[in-house]
Amino acid sequence: MRRRFFLGASLSLAASRAMAAEKPVRFSLQGTMEQGSLVTGSAPPGSLAALDGRPLRMTQDGHFAFGFAPDQTAASLVTVRYPDGGGDSRSYTPLVRQYEIQRVNGLPQNTVTPPPEVRERIAREAEAIYLARIGDTPGSDFLSGFDWPAPGLESGVFGSQRIDNGMPMSPHYGVDMAAPTGTPIMAPADGVVSLSGDHYLNGGFTLIDHGQGVSTAYLHQSVRVVKAGEAVKRGQRIGAIGATGRATGPHLHWAMNWFQLKLDPSRSTRKPKPDPL
Length: 277
Fold this sequence. Notes:
Elements: H1 2-22, E1 28-30, E2 38-42, E3 48-51, E4 54-56, E5 63-67, E6 76-81, E7 87-92, E8 101-104, H2 109-112, H3 116-134, E9 153-156, E10 161-164, E11 167-168, E12 175-178, E13 184-186, E14 191-199, E15 203-209, E16 214-224, E17 231-232, E18 237-241, E19 251-258, E20 261-263
Parallel strand pairs: 8-10
Antiparallel strand pairs: 1-2, 2-5, 3-4, 3-6, 6-7, 9-12, 10-11, 12-19, 13-18, 14-15, 14-17, 15-16, 16-18, 16-19, 19-20
């Protein structure tokens, strides 16, 4: 009898655990769920959310964002505490991507191996970008997805190992669109310009904050038409394609970040890529 009792208790416990595992969570995530992708989440208004124990900013209607690193293979734990006191936790492992190797020749050598006299400037400009990306603003402009900011041939993809003028460099964390100098660049979503300037490596540079650590950047512009602190709307012209900075020809390098985490903007677009010019 005692054996039967313990066996029945064990089966009941196993069934309870299975039911608990199958219980649907009360929050949802959207995104491609792969390395280098932006993820947006929604939960009941008034909820609190955390990623691996790090609190995430929530909008009043229960939306939040985070990203998977380009090389992430470990799971991320998303925890949500609901206004009624309950909560859910789930682990998500990003899909692994295969990145290309891209060789780029013909770059100005002083941008591949900068001379000593400009290294301080490069470090200063990198620090300004780092500080701009720290901001955790309450905006939610990222929720509506992103349009492609310019037409052009896709001449560079996210994550590719770059070999510039024969020298191995850091991976290419952006999407390149090659088009004639002067081709308009449009804001892909609403946001606020957090940084704008002419940089040694980035050329004409603009950084737009879309809220909750989500930002997009536009490099190598020939013309910048927006300045720091300016609010921009989706479809508004923010600059023009050029070949400034470290570039072999006119193109736009479009980048996306969640704070300092580098993401692939092409994975968050809501419309097809524009036809090349």
